[in-house]
Please model this.
Amino acid sequence: RSPQLSFSTPRRSRRSRSSRSPWNHSHNSHSLSLKRTVDFESSADNPNLKLLLHFDPISPLSSFDRFVSFSSDAFQDLLHSVHIDTQTRTFRFSCRKSTLQFLAGFLVCGFLVAFAFRVCFRLGLAFKARFSPKQKVIVRRDRSLGGKEVIVGTTRDHHHPRTNSSALDNPLSLSATPPNLANKTHYPRLHVRHELPKWWPQQLPQRNTASVFDSEYYQTKANRLIKAIIDNRLGGKDFSEEDIIQLRQICRASGVRVSIDTTNTRDSLYRAAVELVLNVCCRASINSTNVQIDGEDAREFLAGLAENIGLDNIRASRMVSAGVAARTRFCFLQAWAFEMQSKHTEAVSELSKICLIHGIFPPGKSSPEMEMVARGLEKILKVEQRELLMATVVGYCNCSEEIRTSAAEALGLVC
Model:
């Protein structure tokens, strides 16, 4: 029998950069390289060549064991890395190079894991948002911003009802309120009563349209006038008082009506007419109770103009009440400014305008407009200052008890 030939050679393979690290040089016992054993056997009886390959078993937890070993060595090294010498009063920090490399690798790996987790989380949210039902955006044009589109709310799918009822998706609509929330609360609903104020004329004096020579002529004249007013407005000019008075004069004499295309232009024209009437009222005498504009009572002038331009009476009365509230606030602030300048006569004159306006257009008891005026004045004037203005109204302005009550409500002095 011929002798057996047996030898063992290491497997040649390309070594990666990670295998060249100091950790692998200092821990050769934990190397993961495979080894093979080749045995050649031959005999006279059996001329065949027999090849036996023996591989060293590799544990699947060898990488984890190496990591635990490195971390344990680094931890032990860090425990003894700080040295304090009390005699020389020195502080020394020393550690092995492998410990610093392990800490650096651990921080880098931790950062990469956190970054990968964040990327996966963002991808999951994007994937979920892509396949989830999207909310429809409600867009409206804001004229105060030059016609730009603004988002006023969102609409949800009926198959995905809202779970959080802390706020509404659309603040301009209450229809998005969940039905279960409506069943939990049983508050009495406040029914808004759409009524005209007491000063609004119940019926305007009728004009005899049969005496008009040519109704079509006046209609054409009124249409030309309203077109000129709108063109001036688009050109950047304010509404003229003469144009407003002339428009009312034509419509009152002939009974014709004009049509304005946009609601915003129509409302702006009527607000300008309200300012015109309030300016005339402020220029009237103190004891005057009947202010006329072109031979017509101020209240009938506003009511008739609202009818001529196709404005609803309820909406027109609200505009007048808002104008009265704004003028009341302005006069109170102007009166206090005169008081600060020791101009008592001018202050009394401003307060007299309030009494005159409230006498012609009484706000009514507990009106919401005067309440808003009071809230605005409370932020500017102190209680003592508002009481001084009220004392001036009572002492120097000869007005009725109703006017004094409305002035007190505007100053926020009514309990």
